[in-house]
Amino acid sequence: MSRFAVEHVKRVRSVVQDRIGTDHMGTANRITRSWIRCLNDYQLDPGTCAEPEVVAAIELQERQARLADVQAVAKVEMANLYQQLAGSGYAIMLTDREGVLLNYFGDPAFTHAASKTGLAQGAVWSERVQGTNGMGTCLVERRPITVHRDEHYLSRNIGLSCAAAPIFDHEGELVGVLDASGESRLAQQHTLALVCMSVQMIENRVFLHQFRHDYILRFHNRPEFVGTLHEGAIALSIEGKVLAASRGALFQLGFSGPDEIAGRDIGELFNVTFPGLVDSSVRRAFHPVPIFEVRNSARFFAVVYQPVASNGLRRAPRSLPGHGPGQQVPTALDTVQFGDPVMAAHVATARRIAERNVATVLLGETGTGKEVFARAMHLSGPRASRPFVAINCASIPESLIESELFGYRSGAFTGASKDGQRCKLLQANGGTLFLDEIGDMPFTLQARLLRVLEEREVVPLGGEAPVKLDIRLVSATHCDLAKKIAAGEFREDLYYRLQGVTLRLPPLRERADRRALIAYLAGQESDEGSVVELDEPLLAALERLRWPGNVRQLRHLLRSMIALRESDSLGLRDLPPEYRLDLDDAAPALPLGSVSSPASGPASGACPASGSGAELALTALESAEREVLLQALERHGWNMSGVARELNISRNTLYRKLQRLNIQHPDKALFH
Fold first, then answer.
1. Are 161 and 183 in contact (CB under 8 A)?
2. Structural domain count, the chain
3. 514 conformational bin, left if phi > 0, alpha if psi -120 to 50, beta if neither
4. Domain span at residue 141?
5. Closest Cα partner for 152 from 279, 38, 295?
6. Of the segments 43-52, 185-194, 625-634, which one has the largest average pLDDT value?
7. Residue 529 belongs to a domain
8. 1: helix, strand or coil
9. Among the four residues 75, 170, 271, 415, which has the most C-beta atoms within 10 Å?
């Protein structure tokens, strides 16, 4: 036994005897309690040289089978965690509730320590067998813990530094431990934080998988966190009763255990009905909607996902309470078309390939809704509970797109983050990766993307160990890829790898369901509980516009009109002047923000209505109001704040009046 080992044994016995022990990390109490258990309860010799205990191969297989659901998810997260710590001398391990090591991702630099301490599949790392250690002591303490070097009980383990966190199921039962162990001489608190994040992701994904055949409510008090590891998730029956809740849900709602929430009606938790919440999720295209907690009136944002049928597709039951018999709640794909035959055919194709990992290319003009369609494909398929990661190849500088897409290791290049960067490909692992404007991807990166797609694994910049990928790929572009291939700007082999199924989304001006789409988008942009209606003349006008910006332009126009409205009924008067066309002429609409020519109206700021006669003419009262406003604007030199103060109204109200009365600065764009 080495001198260090002898000194360690003496220290352990002294601490246990005196019942004291401190360190700068604040873990002395837990470590001391563990040492006392090891010596007094387990009668372990801290200097033992006995061989590590390993279960038989058949027993290991049985234990792995019992934890199959957790293992399937954990392997992906362990690979991601290993990638973040690769090169730091760490191994990532998963144990069951009895401390038997089930899976192991080891850094080559860690093989020496592994051979000495028995870090291998089947090894038993319970506290009773291996003394104080990350995995075993975490199982006893039931909370995250670090055990750094000489905090270990057995002298043979004092070279290790361990960070471990417990994994719980939806019933609050401890099912295993995730651990990162290495030979670091410094206690790495950020390693424990990464382990805890991975555990949270494992628990969330296991929960979503186990209850995939039920309704799932996902929520957070910030809408951007819905769908992330920070969200809460509640499984609901067809009657809206709580079947189970994730740890995140219990924490956010202030419940101490699953028994306090199981069996409750969703209306007992939030100020919503179950059918109403489902309808709101569908109407908002599965974007989070605001709801309020019953007990404390706290606001959350939530979305409800339909059950997954046995064929892997998301479905709605034929008799949801609150709906007519045989009426089905639509899925996300049902919200991208409203009767257009081309879009209906695309939706049917998307449904047929939902269960298969078929690469898809979406073509279409800018603004036709390619990302919306891709997200609807994701939400309507078996990967709906997994990540949807979008990256725009045209909006990221060429110098950064490689690190964004493929990630990099710490120190991979000058200026690299000290913690490295996890790539978009790994973030999408298990889910869908959406590559928008794929035609603008730099030619030098196309070969690397092709290799990743062929081998289904990725190696970050500066990395060595490849990580397996399981992603569904959807690409989109407004470019003519055939012309780019002919010009030598796009790889032909990559094109054929991306092109499993190609869908060309029609521009808005060609869609036969424009009117229904306009009404649907108006409902989406309306405030919750106050749907804005569009009258017939306005609908007819919007239907006839050419929409060079497509659905994106339409959505932005509706958003502006609804924000500036004076009632919940919109008419032609609410249409911005630059959109008021001669409907007989059917001239193209100018996009929002276009600057009208100064010569198009008198210098006094008058902007004559250009709509369809009397419908757009001002009444005598409105004409008088317009003249008063023009005089005030001239007095204040068109300073909006000064005019608003003089009239004792807000700036927003002033802008609405300018919009309604067709008042335009003689040298600037219309106010809208």
1. yes
2. 4
3. alpha
4. 52-207
5. 38
6. 43-52
7. no
8. coil
9. 170
